[in-house]
């Protein structure tokens, strides 16, 4: 028997090794990143660069496989490089070339409003009638968007379609908007269902991407490149791109609603700004190589701000020089373009935040002061407040049999699986016509799947018991669905066990205005510390991302449109994908008032003026009703109006980011290639020094509790009154000592910048993360710098 097991083991091992060897020999898509590029505007230079890339490829690909000498994408504006089909060995050979910074497999990336902007304005404390300063309509927001990933089924509508934009939406009406800025160099690409006339003075550009092969002599003969015209269109078939674009900069639309829910005036954060859409994915998926190309095009076209609701997996995060978004965003910053990204939807676990490079503005998600209630009424008359977005046709006057999922299990199905409404776990004969109660003990089965399982079994509706996620309403269309907390769920189960014929009904959704508390950090919002380094605080800030009303495509899917209604031009969606364009819109608003401000000034203004209080005047909380930490909310929830006049700002320069790369451990040679300069790393470089970069927040990964201390230096620039004096106050928790020197900063006509130090030490008490803040104030401005210190 032992010899047989050994033989089977050897056979299995041989198969694995054979498979691994063949996999290594099979060409796969790779990205070859070659660092910074000079700005090449001439078409001839661009073609010459592609030809050079092709010659480099031909030097490593065997002559008998010459058909593989082609470029999937070529980059040569803000940065250099290309994407091609390579074996693992060929990729390894290429990575040894002097001119190449990194070579990595082309990753598949994930995706990660009537009231939301009014709520942000109200939370600023300035009142709804606060006059907006004169703003310019010349700010251009580039939206790089993609398809819905299946791990987001909890928060966004299911879909396999790529996304883009629905130009017919009233949110992209250009009435009252001036001529397109002359600096705009973008295009409006046509497709079978998209014409140049679909663009206007609001939607000024639209691109879409499929693999555009370029090869040497494959089809034209000689050493020339050949481009295959891409197929497709910039049109949105899912709704995500339209939703994010209208959230950031949608025009004002009166009387907008989602089938009468959330009715009001819909608008983007910067209604006067222009939109350029970069549809970066197709039905077959979304590649990092294409994201690189889309961001490069956005920079070349002339956008001011890029909003990216996409990210790498939090489980398999790549380092900064192997992450397409981190690479492209660095070069965007070099060229003065601000990049804002969603932080991910893998919360509430720590170390799940993505897009954590310091040159990216990383956004967490929170709710607003509006919720959607779907009441559950039992046969005994007891009513429970559940949460959902549903357009059920059930009423109080008629109830239906109520059953627990575990009591209607299919034959040979464990009760635990039926209780969780696993696929195939319910007996259709037992479940038919009943309202089924499911629990959420297994997060591997998302809410939408449970709803589909019950619906397929012929159930009349579903009640889900889930305390943590009830704050994020699921849109179940016309199917009756409601989500209740643990206490309400327990009472419902007791009711089932106390009567022979338990009955219930689920009422359609109703809006709950002036909901409290808000904001609350959303359950799904990814948390810090950053998995790549804890010496930069991520996320940077929080913005509305729960049940956000914005434009969408008019869907007519069965079960999604209430009886007697036409498909809605608006939808309610949740995710950090929705929070990201809120920051993009806020940044565009600030840029329109302060056109000379850099990306780092805008970022600093939004972070240091963020609020950490909710609409009850208490500290922000998370979905567990605990105080939210900076690892969950960053500096707090953005207040765009306050950010217009922050008083002081932290200017984080490209040199700071190059120092970051040195301290992180990258070789000087790679950093020079990335920066396109003769930059030299400091003689002393180690990761803890990252904490000393001039960032708008402070994070220290290790502080010895018995004998350790650390000094942090920061420099602020006065953008307020020329002659002003700021005094520092420190909010530090028990167990941490924080002192500021000097504690007074004086600014004059000739002195616009000042530096200060913060000394951190432990008093020897408990270990773990300590949170606090340094606030500078001149009596009018309050410049809050949050800090995180890990006492070890």
TrEMBL record:
<keyword id="KW-0378">Hydrolase</keyword>
<protein>
    <submittedName>
        <fullName>Uncharacterized protein</fullName>
    </submittedName>
</protein>
<dbReference type="Pfam" id="PF05922">
    <property type="entry name" value="Inhibitor_I9"/>
</dbReference>
<dbReference type="GO" id="GO:0004252">
    <property type="term" value="F:serine-type endopeptidase activity"/>
</dbReference>
<feature type="domain" description="Inhibitor I9">
    <location>
        <begin position="30"/>
        <end position="112"/>
    </location>
</feature>
<keyword id="KW-0732">Signal</keyword>
<dbReference type="GO" id="GO:0006508">
    <property type="term" value="P:proteolysis"/>
</dbReference>
<feature type="domain" description="Subtilisin-like protease fibronectin type-III">
    <location>
        <begin position="692"/>
        <end position="789"/>
    </location>
</feature>
<dbReference type="InterPro" id="IPR000209">
    <property type="entry name" value="Peptidase_S8/S53_dom"/>
</dbReference>
<dbReference type="InterPro" id="IPR041469">
    <property type="entry name" value="Subtilisin-like_FN3"/>
</dbReference>
<feature type="active site" description="Charge relay system">
    <location>
        <position position="240"/>
    </location>
</feature>
<dbReference type="Pfam" id="PF00082">
    <property type="entry name" value="Peptidase_S8"/>
</dbReference>
<dbReference type="InterPro" id="IPR010259">
    <property type="entry name" value="S8pro/Inhibitor_I9"/>
</dbReference>
<dbReference type="InterPro" id="IPR034197">
    <property type="entry name" value="Peptidases_S8_3"/>
</dbReference>
<dbReference type="InterPro" id="IPR037045">
    <property type="entry name" value="S8pro/Inhibitor_I9_sf"/>
</dbReference>
<dbReference type="InterPro" id="IPR015500">
    <property type="entry name" value="Peptidase_S8_subtilisin-rel"/>
</dbReference>
<comment type="similarity">
    <text>Belongs to the peptidase S8 family.</text>
</comment>
<dbReference type="InterPro" id="IPR045051">
    <property type="entry name" value="SBT"/>
</dbReference>
<feature type="domain" description="Peptidase S8/S53">
    <location>
        <begin position="138"/>
        <end position="618"/>
    </location>
</feature>
<dbReference type="InterPro" id="IPR023828">
    <property type="entry name" value="Peptidase_S8_Ser-AS"/>
</dbReference>
<feature type="signal peptide">
    <location>
        <begin position="1"/>
        <end position="23"/>
    </location>
</feature>
<keyword id="KW-0645">Protease</keyword>
<feature type="active site" description="Charge relay system">
    <location>
        <position position="145"/>
    </location>
</feature>
<dbReference type="Pfam" id="PF17766">
    <property type="entry name" value="fn3_6"/>
</dbReference>
<keyword id="KW-0720">Serine protease</keyword>
<dbReference type="InterPro" id="IPR036852">
    <property type="entry name" value="Peptidase_S8/S53_dom_sf"/>
</dbReference>
<feature type="active site" description="Charge relay system">
    <location>
        <position position="577"/>
    </location>
</feature>
């Amino acid at each position: 028997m032992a010899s047989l097991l050994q033989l089977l083991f050897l056979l299995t091992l041989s198969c694995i090794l054979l498979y691994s060897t063949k996999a290594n020999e099979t060409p796969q898509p790779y990205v070859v990143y070659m660092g910074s590029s000079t700005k090449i505007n001439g078409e001839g230079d661009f073609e010459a660069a592609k030809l050079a890339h092709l010659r480099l490829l031909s030097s490593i690909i065997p002559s008998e496989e010459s058909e593989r000498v082609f470029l999937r994408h070529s980059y040569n504006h803000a940065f250099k490089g290309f994407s091609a089909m390579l074996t693992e060995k060929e990729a390894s050979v290429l990575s040894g070339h002097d001119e190449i910074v990194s070579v990595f497999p082309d990753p598949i990336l994930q995706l990660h409003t009537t009231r939301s902007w009014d709520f942000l304005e109200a939370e600023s404390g300035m009142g709804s009638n606060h006059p907006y300063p004169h703003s310019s309509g010349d700010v251009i927001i580039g939206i790089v968007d993609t398809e819905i990933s299946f791990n987001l089924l909890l928060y966004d509508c299911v879909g396999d379609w790529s996304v883009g934009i629905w130009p017919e939406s009233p949110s992209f009406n250009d009435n009252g908007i001036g001529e397109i800025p002359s600096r705009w160099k973008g295009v409006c690409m046509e497709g079978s269902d998209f014409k140049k006339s679909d663009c206007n003075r609001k939607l000024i550009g639209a691109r879409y991407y499929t693999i555009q092969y370029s090869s040497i002599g494959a089809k034209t003969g000689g050493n020339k490149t050949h481009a295959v015209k891409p197929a497709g269109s910039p049109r949105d078939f899912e709704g995500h791109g339209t939703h994010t674009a209208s959230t950031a900069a949608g025009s004002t639309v009166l009387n907008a609603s989602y089938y009468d829910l959330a009715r009001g005036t819909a608008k983007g954060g910067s209604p006067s700004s222009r939109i350029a859409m970069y549809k970066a994915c197709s039905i077959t998926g979304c590649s990092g190589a294409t994201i690189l190309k889309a961001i490069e095009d956005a920079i070349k076209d002339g956008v001011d701000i890029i909003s990216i609701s996409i990210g790498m997996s939090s489980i398999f995060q790549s380092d900064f020089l192997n992450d397409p978004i981190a690479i492209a965003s660095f070069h965007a910053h070099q060229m003065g373009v601000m990049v804002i990204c969603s932080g991910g939807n893998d919360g509430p676990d720590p170390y799940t935040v993505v897009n954590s490079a310091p040159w990216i503005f990383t956004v967490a998600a929170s709710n607003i002061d509006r919720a959607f209630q779907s009441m559950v009424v039992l046969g005994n008359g007891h009513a429970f407040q559940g949460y959902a977005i549903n357009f059920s046709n059930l009423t109080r006057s008629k109830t239906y049999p109520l059953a627990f999922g575990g009591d209607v299990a299919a034959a040979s199905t464990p009760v635990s699986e039926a209780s969780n409404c696993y696929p195939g776990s319910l007996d259709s004969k037992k479940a038919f016509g009943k309202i089924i109660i499911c629990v959420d003990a297994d997060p591997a089965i998302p809410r939408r799947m449970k709803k589909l399982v019950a619906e397929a079994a012929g159930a009349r509706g579903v009640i889900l018991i889930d305390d943590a996620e009830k704050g994020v309403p699921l849109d179940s269309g016309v199917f009756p669905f409601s989500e209740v907390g643990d206490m309400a769920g327990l009472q419902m189960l007791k009711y089932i066990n106390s009567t022979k014929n338990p009955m219930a009904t689920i009422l359609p959704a109703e809006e709950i205005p002036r909901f409290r508390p808000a904001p609350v950090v959303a359950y799904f919002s990814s948390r810090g510390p950053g998995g790549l380094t804890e010496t930069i605080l991520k996320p940077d800030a929080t913005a509305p991302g729960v049940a956000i009303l914005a434009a969408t495509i008019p869907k007519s899917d069965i079960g999604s449109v209430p009886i007697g209604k036409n498909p809605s031009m608006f939808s309610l969606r949740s995710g950090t994908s929705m929070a990201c364009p809120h920051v993009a819109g806020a940044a565009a608003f600030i840029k329109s008032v302060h056109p000379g401000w850099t990306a780092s000034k805008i970022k600093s203004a939004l972070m240091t003026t963020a609020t950490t209080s909710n609409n009850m005047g208490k500290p922000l909380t998370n979905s567990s009703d605990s105080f939210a930490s900076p690892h969950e909310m960053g500096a707090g929830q953005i207040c765009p109006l306050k950010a217009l006049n922050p008083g002081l700002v932290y200017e984080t320069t490209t040199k700071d980011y190059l120092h970051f790369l040195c301290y992180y451990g990258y070789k000087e040679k790679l950093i020079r290639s990335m920066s396109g300069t003769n930059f030299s790393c400091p003689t002393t470089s180690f990761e803890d020094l990252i904490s000393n970069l001039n960032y708008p927040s402070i994070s220290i990964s290790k502080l010895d509790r018995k004998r350790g201390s650390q000094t942090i230096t920061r420099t602020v620039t006065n953008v307020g009154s020329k002659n002003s004096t700021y005094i520092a106050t420190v909010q530090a928790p028990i167990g941490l000592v924080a002192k500021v020197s000097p504690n007074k900063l004086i600014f004059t006509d000739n002195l616009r910048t000042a530096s200060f130090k913060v000394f951190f030490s432990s008093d020897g008490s408990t270990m773990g993360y300590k949170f606090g803040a340094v606030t500078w104030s001149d009596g009018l401005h309050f410049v809050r710098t949050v800090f995180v210190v890990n006492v070890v």
